[in-house]
Protein: Glucose-1-phosphate adenylyltransferase
Organism: Paranoxybacillus vitaminiphilus
Amino acid sequence: MNKTMLGVIDATKYIDALEPLTINRCIAAIPFAGRYRLIDFVLSNMVNSGIESVAIFPKYQYRSLMDHLGSGKNWDLNRKRDGLFFFPSPDLNMPYDHIGAFEHFEQHVDYFLRSKQKYALICNSYTVCNIDYQMVLKRHIENECDITEIRHQGKSLEMFILETSLLLDLIINRNETRYMSIVDVVRDHRHQLKICDYEYCGYVAVIDSIDNYFAHSMELLHPMIWKQLFDKLRPIYTKVKDEPPTKYTGEAVVKNSMIANGCMIEGHVENSIIFRAVKVGKGTVIKNSIIMQKSQIGENCELDCVIIDKDVKVENGVTLRGTARQPFVIRKGTVQGALMNL
């Protein structure tokens, strides 16, 4: 029996509540967990589930996403047959914003027509978890379902499995059926299709707002949650960057924090996530914060409940404070000076 799947990652959605992290990038490319991007999780789950053909459908600000994924080598998707495919939407004015919009898929329908995989898995790009899709497919086949929707605590994770032939029929006949997305099909009970639910019981983080991004990032500092998400048997892959180990000076103090490689830590870091190649100056205290790649924090600064995007420079003596519900966000590539204390 053909139990192979092709993977479809719908990266077209834009969520206002994630600004300013999405001003220069799409949601799928948002940095997360010290060295990853959001798309790394769904893509790694697909690869760990034996999926060898993955199509990514981006729409907005996808240059950084393409730079991150490249040929797919780090996910073993740089193949002569199948592999990683990018299908950008040529029409930015499409009003339909549901995951799995058939109009987006129809513009690249040849991908589905040429695919030899019997089943298709459709996912969004901003749900963080570590799931075995083969287990979902097994249940889908055993229950003779037409579409299986993956849920967590009763809520949809916007992940769906169905036969590729059924997906093609829905794409091609959307004007007759009036179903514009896979979500429309699942929510309508007037058709004869058998819709099944699969309840996933592991750790899940849906990143759809700044406060959710901050809260779920801080959750990773709990060892039990970290172990659930980063299973050694089902690793999360990302773009490899060869950087030296982080250097800690004699004055450095680090408590309950995640610090990536290539950093220079001279100050105090507590309950925080520090990405690659970050510099923290002497006398600086960082608590409950997220500092992204290549940012430079000067000396004698105080940061609490702050999200600092990539390539930000915080000058000496700056104080920045937010709250757990409203973290203070500094945009990518900006300079925060002492006269701008907040």
In short: The CA atoms of residues 52 and 77 lie 7 Å apart.
